[in-house]
Write a structure and sequence with these properties.
By secondary structure, the chain is mostly beta strands. The chain has three helices and 34 strands.
Length: 468
């Protein structure tokens, strides 16, 4: 493949073409792995298999999951492509057949006649990987998730036993309620502007649907739960499938409309609250909770839509900052303040505190400027009790991925857990970093060094108790 024309396929954004298995004899462990860890750290990401037709932002590559399994101090690594129908069809024909989110391609008739995937919108299954209700799924917000086995082999599309209907697109950003075990998710559709909250029980059985009507289909990437609500941001960011099919720029930003914060009661029995404020965009929430009748939302703020069809505009490198927003239902007022001036993304918390008051947030962070494609060379800890932001830098040229908080099974305290992420540096290569959440300034207590690269990717999770 010639990837020279695509900034987001350079350096550690470049794909790899191998599926690998490394046991303890092939992995080098630096430091000491906590014995309490039993489970797997898994991260999904985009990994193109064939020459792309277009690649403005790293959204379009085929899904590949990288995993490090832990069992009482022992470790094992493996990575696998998610065997989607689109990837299998392209392998059959030996070339790119499907376009990107920004520039779609018509599916050749010969492909359809041969029984290949007819949908021109590629289900990449590249955004997140989640373990809930005994189901391991690779997710992309434009379609059904793909069910995986524990060893990352692909089972196939998963419709939650018929709860998802043809055309439904399940979000890649659900939240799990720590009290009920419920998965709070949502579906959108290409043929409708509306939004549907979907709630599944702790065993992945569908419980209820809460519809939310919109006049236009917005780009709604994430959601946040509190004790009583689901919160979404309806920014003036829109995508047109029709324009994409014509080769036109499908992305629209209309800041004069402002951003609406939609607060949806989780019981589905009360009216939604709609707060309004100046236009902003956000990919990711950190956490949210209720206090003294108000709703507090911590999230990563971006000034405007951070992507476009054109290359080299720099819009994707605009500042991303941790913000705290307070919503007052009694006055319908919005107070939004910058919490930290650190460039950050992929914000996470101790999932046991999801929807509850908490102390620490974590995010991929940067303390340097990036000349070409933006990146993150640090892991940041955001202390919402003291206001302090602490960075651990892996090196000026490092690429650090989404940090995931892993709880210590012997403690309920946030500071007693660990924070894991994949890191790549030119000097050390690829490794999984493990930092003590309460002692960030001391850096990793262990590094699991992996032969070969682990490319930059998207979202990760700790799969508690999942082993090979």
């Amino acid at each position: 493949m010639d990837l020279s024309a695509f900034p987001y396929l350079q350096g550690n954004y470049a794909p790899i073409d191998e599926e690998r298995d490394f046991d303890e004899s092939q992995l080098r462990v630096e430091g000491e792995i906590p014995d309490q860890l039993v489970g797997a750290y898994m991260r999904d990401g985009a990994n193109v298999a064939f020459q792309p037709n277009y690649y403005v932002y790293p959204l379009d590559g085929d899904g590949m999951v990288h995993a490090v399994y832990f069992n009482n101090g022992h470790v094992h690594y493996k990575n696998r492509w998610v065997e989607t129908s689109h990837l299998k069809t392209e392998r059959k024909f030996g070339r790119t057949l499907y376009g990107s989110v920004g520039k779609l391609l018509e599916v050749p008739q010969e492909v359809i006649d041969a029984g290949g995937e007819p949908n021109p919108v590629r289900n990449t299954a590249n955004t997140n990987v989640l373990y809930h209700g005994g189901k391991l799924v690779a997710m992309w917000e434009g379609g059904f998730p793909y069910l995986l086995n524990n060893d990352l082999s692909t089972v196939g599309l998963y419709d939650y036993e018929g709860a998802l209907q043809p055309g439904d697109a399940l979000t890649a950003h659900p939240k799990v309620c720590p009290d009920t075990g419920q998965l709070i998710s949502c579906t959108q559709r290409w043929d409708s502007p509306n939004y549907w909250v979907q709630i599944f029980d702790a065993h992945a059985k569908h419980l209820k649907t809460i519809p939310v009507s919109f006049e236009r289909k917005g780009i709604i990437h994430d959601l946040q739960i509190t004790e009583n609500y689901v919160v979404i941001f309806y920014a003036p960011a829109f995508h047109s499938l029709e324009r994409a099919m014509k080769g036109e720029d499908p992305f629209m930003w209309e800041p004069e409309l402002g951003t609406k914060i939609i607060v949806i009661p989780r019981d589905g029995n009360s009216d939604n609250m709609v707060f309004e404020t100046d236009a902003f965009f956000s990919w990711h929430f950190c956490n949210g909770f209720e206090r003294d009748g108000k709703i507090i939302i911590d999230y990563v703020w971006i000034n405007s839509i951070p992507f476009t069809q054109a290359q080299g505009t720099g819009v994707e490198k605009q500042p991303r900052r941790m913000h705290r927003m307070t919503l007052d239902p009694s006055t319908m007022s919005v107070n939004d303040e910058e919490f930290s001036d650190v460039f950050c993304e992929f914000s996470r918390v101790d999932e046991r505190r999801m929807g509850k008051d908490y102390r620490y947030g974590f995010a991929a962070s940067s303390n340097r400027d990036w000349g070409d494609a933006h990146g993150y060379n640090c892991t940041g800890r955001f202390d919402f009790k003291t206001g302090e932001t602490t960075l651990w830098e892996y090196g000026p040229e490092a690429n650090a991925g989404e940090p995931v908080y892993v709880p210590n099974p012997e403690s309920e305290l946030e500071e007693d857990g660990w924070v894991m992420c994949f890191v790549y540096t030119p000097d050390e290569g690829a490794f999984l970093s493990i930092i003590n959440a309460g002692d960030f300034a001391s850096g990793p207590v262990a590094k699991v060094h992996i032969p070969g690269r682990v490319p930059n990717g998207f979202h990760a999770n700790w799969m508690n108790g999942l082993t090979l």
